[in-house]
């Protein structure tokens, strides 16, 4: 008998579909992750796990759950999974590519608009009763139209973000580990060095994955090279940013502001210094948070689990690269 553990609440329609194949156990908390020891205990007799980035899938987990056939990760990234260990234990790993690209790009664009036009500051200004008169430079912000936007990481999300810039007549710069001919021909994007990107861009958008090469790339030296009116947006991974250096850059006026959907340690603690700045917007990792996209992510996980239970290769199987 197959048994499935789902580590977040999911709609009943998906639970019912999984129950056609297996006994299903669901962690009954919407926002709170399963405590580690409870997760390991619950996984012991399971043949499939449907998890999020909050769960660490490692050697300890595979030893605790010897019957596992598949771990379906409800995310594009899989930083939380030891792929080598999964291969040793012959456990399939799947992710949810493609389905959240456009939604995440939309959130990034919303952060760029909100930060550049100081929307959160303006709303608070009204709510606090400070709006007494009109002034020519009252909460004056920064135009995106005809600006220069630098995209760090021209993968699917980077390209989706770039498509949205075309209506703003913006110049699109990008830096990637390799050139993207499609982005250049279809979107008019210009490939540049990382140094040129951060020095010349009005807006710097980080959409790159976390790798040894990208971790901590946005550090003191990078922020010092940015324009003083530059705005930094991060919608992919928090560990690309040295947060202490970002705090210093904001505090010292080295950049104009930041919009962050991800931080290094989530959830952000309420005494984090980034939260004290009016020109920094932090959202709770909601890049893919539309009802349609979240439904598609869960559906993708369900389909991958069904594939494995039917003795097929998971359609979105992630392979370990030695």
Automatic annotation (TrEMBL):
Q: Which residues form the D-isomer specific 2-hydroxyacid dehydrogenase catalytic domain?
A: 4-318
Q: Where is each D-isomer specific 2-hydroxyacid dehydrogenase NAD-binding domain found?
A: 109-287
Among its keywords, does the record have Electron transport?
Answer: no
Q: Which residues form the signal peptide?
A: none
Pfam families registered for this protein in UniProt: 2-Hacid_dh (PF00389), 2-Hacid_dh_C (PF02826)
Keyword annotations from UniProtKB, A to Z: Oxidoreductase
Q: Does the keyword Oxidoreductase apply?
A: yes
Q: Which family does it belong to?
A: Belongs to the D-isomer specific 2-hydroxyacid dehydrogenase family.
What protein name does the entry list?
Answer: D-glycerate dehydrogenase
Question: To which species is this protein native?
Answer: Staphylococcus ratti
């Amino acid at each position: 008998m197959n048994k499935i553990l789902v580590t977040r609440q999911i709609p009943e329609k998906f639970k019912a579909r999984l129950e056609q194949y297996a006994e299903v156990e669901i962690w009954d908390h919407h926002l709170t992750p399963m405590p580690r020891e409870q997760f390991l205990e619950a996984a012991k007799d399971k043949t499939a796990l449907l998890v999020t980035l909050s769960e660490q899938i490692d050697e300890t987990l595979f030893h605790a759950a010897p019957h596992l056939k598949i771990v379906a990760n409800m995310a594009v990234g899989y930083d939380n999974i030891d792929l080598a260990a999964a291969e040793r234990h012959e456990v399939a790993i799947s992710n949810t590519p493609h389905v959240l690209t456009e939604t995440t790009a939309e959130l990034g664009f919303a952060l760029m608009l909100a930060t550049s036009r100081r929307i959160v500051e303006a709303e608070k200004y009204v709510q606090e009763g400070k709006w007494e008169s009109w002034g020519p430079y009252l909460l004056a912000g920064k135009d995106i139209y005809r600006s220069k936007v630098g995209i760090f990481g021209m993968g699917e999300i980077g390209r989706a973000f770039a498509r949205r810039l075309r209506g703003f007549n913006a110049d699109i710069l990008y830096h990637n580990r390799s050139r993207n001919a499609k982005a250049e021909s279809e979107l008019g994007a210009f490939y540049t060095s990382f140094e040129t990107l951060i020095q010349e861009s009005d807006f710097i958008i980080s959409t790159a994955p976390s790798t040894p090469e990208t971790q901590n790339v946005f550090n003191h030296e990078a922020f010092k090279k940015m324009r003083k009116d530059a705005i930094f947006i991060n919608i992919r991974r928090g560990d690309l940013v040295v947060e202490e250096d970002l705090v210093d850059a904001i505090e010292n006026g080295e950049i104009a502001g930041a919009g962050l959907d991800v931080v290094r340690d989530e959830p952000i603690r309420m005494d984090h210094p980034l939260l004290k700045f009016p020109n920094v917007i932090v959202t709770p990792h909601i890049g893919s948070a539309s009802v349609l996209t979240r439904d598609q992510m869960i559906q993708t996980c369900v389909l991958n689990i069904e594939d494995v239970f039917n003795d097929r290769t998971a359609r979105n199987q992630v392979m370990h690269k030695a």
